[in-house]
Every structure is written in C-alpha cells, then in structure tokens.
Amino acid sequence: MTGKTHMVSGIAASFAVVLPKTPKEMLLCIGAAAIGAVISDIDVSTSEARRNFNKLLKVVALILLITGFLEYHFQLGILNMARHHGYLLTTAGFFLFFFVCIYGKEQPHRSFMHSILGLFLLTFSVYMMFPPASFPFAVAMISHVVLDLLNKRKVKLFYPFRKGVAFSICRSDGIVNTVLFYLSCFISLGIGAFLLFHYFTISI
Questions:
Q1: Neighbouring C-beta atoms of residue 61, cutoff 10 Å
Q2: Distance of alpha carbon 116 from alpha carbon 156, whole angstroms
Q3: Is the separation of the CB atoms in 111 and 72 below 8 Å?
Q4: pLDDT score recorded for residue 59
Q5: Phi then psi dihedrals of residue 155, to 5 deg
Q6: Rounded-to-integer distance, Cα 50 and Cα 200, Å
C-alpha cells in the first residue's frame, strides 16, 4: 500500500481499537498512530519511495507541532504525563527507538522493520518513552504489516528467518489501495466525530 493509505489506515485502526475518550487521548492516538503507521517503511531504498516517505515524515512532524500547540494553549496534560513517567526511562526509550530505526533502515525492505521482532522492539521503546502512546503506536504498526501482507511481495514476518509471507491478493498501488484509503478516511472521521460528540455531550 502507499504511504498515505498506511497512515490513514493506521489512524483508523487505532481509533477503532483504542477508542480514546477525551480530546487529549485523541490527539495522543493520532500522533502515535501516524508514526507507527509509516515507521516500517523507513527501510525503503528507492529514491521515489524515499521522497514519499520524507513527505510523510513532514506530515507526522506537522501533527506533532499541532499537538504541541494545543497542549500549550489548552493545557491538556500530555506533558505532565511525560514528566511523571520519568526522564531517565524516557531517554533510554528514545535511544532504543533511534538505534532500532538506524538498524532497520539498512535492512532489506519488508524484513526487520516489518517483523514481529521489529514491532516488539519499537513498541517497547515507545512504552519506555511514553506508555500511553505505545498501544495506538502498536495497533497502527500492525495495520501496516497486515496491509503489506496483502501484496505480492513477501514480508519477512518472522525475521531473522528468511522465509517470507504474502497473500498475493492485490498490488500496493492498485484499486484496493484506493478503496482502503477512502474507507480509512471515512472511518477515521466518523469515529473521531462520534467520540468528540460523545465527550462533549457528557461534559455538558
């Protein structure tokens, strides 16, 4: 699947599974899912795909900036949650995440960064940095791997074992990709609107 489909599908999956209850949890879910949904493709080596991935990183950075802006102006409490967690553990998680990505970036596409091992290490590092973000991150990353399994190119799900898995149902940029993109957009907006409506209805 293309990068934009992975991103909106990851956010939709996280909304559906996590069901955030407050605007703060929704922002956290979107930010963590946006990163988890695209981080696997850091191993893409072709120049065009790399450019597309860099564009997605800019979108992720924009989401984080918006989250920071809302946190600053509305005092949602996200930073307080991070402080209570502990800076030492957060720093250790950051470096683990960084080194896992550095290693994964140099591996063949759809190998380590698409494996159960990679999923575990990255999710664990996110948990060390900021526990509330680990669940939506993991859900989004799992959605990425599941969608890639639908393609014809094999995914080394059980890395470091060489044998890969592929269901060979569709192409990564075909009609299924387009349908999934719009369906995920609809699901994300629908669930988001429902959760916000429910939150503000209860608050009144």
A1: 12
A2: 9
A3: no
A4: 67
A5: -105, 125
A6: 41
Structure tokens at 41: 């493709």
Residue that the structure tokens 């990353």 belong to: 141
**pLDDT tens for residues 65-96?**
776 677 667 666 665 665 565 667 777 888 88
CA separation (Å) from 166 to 36, 37, 79, 148, 154? 21, 19, 41, 8, 5
**What averages of pLDDT result for each successive group of 10 residues across the chain (204 residues)?**
86 93 87 90 62 60 71 65 65 84 86 94 93 94 92 89 83 80 91 84 69
Structure tokens, 105:
């970036």
Structure tokens at 160: 């470091």
Q: In sequence order, what are the beta bridge partners of 155?
A: 165
How far is Cα 19 from Cα 25, in angstroms, rounded to an integer?
9
Find the radius of gyration of the CA atoms of the chain: 17
